[in-house]
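User: Show me a protein chain along with its predicted structure.
Assistant: Here is one chain, sequence first, then structure tokens.
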Amino acid sequence: MTTADTNKDRVYIFDTTLRDGEQSPGATMTLEEKLQVAEMLDDMGVDIIEAGFPIASNGDFEAVAEVAKRSKNAIIAGLARAIPADIARAGEAVRFARQGRIHTFVSTSPIHLAHQMKKTEEQVLEIISATVAQARNLIDNVEWSAMDATRTPIDFLARCVELAIKAGATTINLPDTVGYAVPEEHGAMFRAIIERVPGADKVIFSSHCHNDLGLAVANSLAAVKAGARQVECTINGLGERAGNAALEEIVMALRTRGDAMPYHTNIETTHLSRASKIVSAAANFPVQYNKAIVGKNAFAHESGIHQDGMLKNAETYEIMTPASVGIKETTLVMGKHSGRAAFKDKLRELGYELGDNAFQEAFVRFKDLADRKKHIYDADIVALVDDEAGSIDDRIKLVDMEVVSKTGGIHRCDMTVTIDGEKTTVSYDGTGSVDAIFNAIKQAVGLDPHLVLYAVDGVTGGTDAQASAHVRLEHNGRIASGNAAEPDTLVASARAYLNAVNRLLIERGAAAQGAMESAAS
């Protein structure tokens, strides 16, 4: 294979976990979490990291600028609407990067122009020329996106792309913004634009697909086969509504089916499992058990026929090895006699690097769990560390809780919490134990959010398994999720609810700070 062939078949991975992924309701990350995710993406070989939307808030600007300063290899992109102030702000944020990019976009479909933009086609063409040129004057690396491209008439889309290229765009993105396309028509759109637009051979075409019909990955691969050489995706498929195309699925599909799709990426695939865990913990979004590539059951076999085949030859039922995505087959190696060194080594094996304080907190909880639970599995440690990472800085913490339940009788919760270090004790009844617990928390904190989701899963098998509780709350238009893992289901439920309340308070404080800064400016 020649160098020219290698470059021709190279697919660039544009990760938008920190921007589009974070727009998923309840997935807001702190600055430290964003920096951790960005470092992981850079280390695993992501080509372009879209670090945020700098004009959206001071916090977003700070995050993009800080990621840009710390990036070692990846291009750092900032998103900007086709508005001069947006573009200037994005340029200011990414100027700190070794390689920066401004990613600007404008709607092109009739439904968006009529109802959202309230602009004519000619007005949109003028906007494209002016704003892409502005971005190119600030930086050499400019990406332009036609929002809702898949519902845009091909003739108008071609005019838009031609203008964007003439104005200086170096990457052209044709997104399936609402997850409407099917693979055949998505590929046909790319082929038509690449064939008919002058200068198309001088730019890189990009695909950005949403998963509303469950076709995001299939559409992305169809775009690659049609000539796109950049794919925009997120870890775990995180994103608005049904999410984005999943990075791990695209990368492993190209690697595993090179016979059908002779393209390659620069992603170090052994980092995929760790990346999934880091993003899941940072965004507080659990990964479904049967999620392709990185789900808990992705390499699990329960059927007798499957197990028999696996024992004879793993290739009978596995088209890729667990090791190829960074998953190790490990069992019961940790217990109450394990020391700090062994625990730290196990954390590294599972993909975690904790600071001294976080490690000490996690080790104390590990020892406490080992005293109560006979067998400690890797999944127990993952749940414990992820839970600790989400609660170490909580303003409200559970101190003590007693729940009384009686068949056909009263369910009551007596609870003590600390709020900013001050103890508060409350008692409250409910229609059940969990209802009483949640009512007690609401009384203690003086907040009455709407419960959007409550779910409990067993981390492992057995009656002594840790319960992993998930809570999602909505209050005044803000959504926050909370997770917790405990051997006691009721304690796990209480801590998950408190974790979500703490996230609501953080968001409310950030919003209030932003309002004060806006008023002062």
